[in-house]
Amino acid sequence: MNDEKKIPILKFIVFIIDWNKTKIISQVFEEEHVRFHFITRGRGTASSEILDLLGIGASDKAVVLCLEQEVLIPVLLKEVRKKLGFHSPGAGIAFTMPLSGINNPILQVFKESIHKNEKIAAEIENSLAAKKEGGAMSSEIKHDLIISIINQGYSDDFMTVAREAGARGGTVINARGLAHQGPVKFFGVSVQDEREIILILTNREKKAPIMQAISQAYGITSQAGGIVFSVPVDSMMGLSFE
């Protein structure tokens, strides 16, 4: 195949870690030449011992978003786990999601780097193929990310309802609507400028009851003015290095 026709498969990666570890992960990204990453501040809502061990308990969180070629993600995750895992047993969590589209200038940046990454990509692809032949790999989607956008001030009660429906925790990000000035009417409901984005990572079988519960209690017709949707997560792992 002509090099010009090679199109890298990209994935959207989300890391949720303690805020005080942002310099560590930024250093890893610089060393691994990650081209696009963004960091925003969030707040963990989980309190169970299991989630605390994963590093997504209640505290200030950094939500790190980045793009990377699919074949290089194992290398990136390995280095992130190594650096973060040496600092605490609860290093955080990471998951990836497939892209359905991307603008051409960004895609071109990744296409230009294909030559540099061909050797690494080939080694990883061979390793993955071997695991797949041995039955160790599965393409089945087992997790989903529920994304809820609600008016500010409802996140604590929102998470109480979500937990009762099966959620084990979530991360809250403060946001601001920019498409308008002042409260507007959306489906006849007043929506505030200040918003909260709540991310809940869950097993696929729990997605429907969680979404139904939070939509009934904090949906678009409630004072919270909630918008709820989900996206598939194709891989997930804790970041503690073992």
Low-pLDDT parts are: 49-56, 133-138
Q: Largest sheet, described in full?
A: 9 strands, antiparallel
Q: Whole-number radius of gyration?
A: 19 Å
SS elements, strand count:
11
Which range best describes the helical content: under 10%, 10-25%, 25-40%, 40-55%, 55-70% or over 70%? Answer: 25-40%
Specify the number of helices.
7
Beta strand %: 25-35%
With strands numbered from the N-terminus, the spatial order across the biggest sheet is 10-5-9-6-2-3-1-4-11
Distance N to C terminus: 40 Å
- Say what oligomer this is: single chain
In terms of structural class, how would the helical and strand content be classed? alpha+beta
- Rounded mean pLDDT score: 76
Secondary-structure element series: EHEHEHEHHEHEEEEHEE
Shape: globular
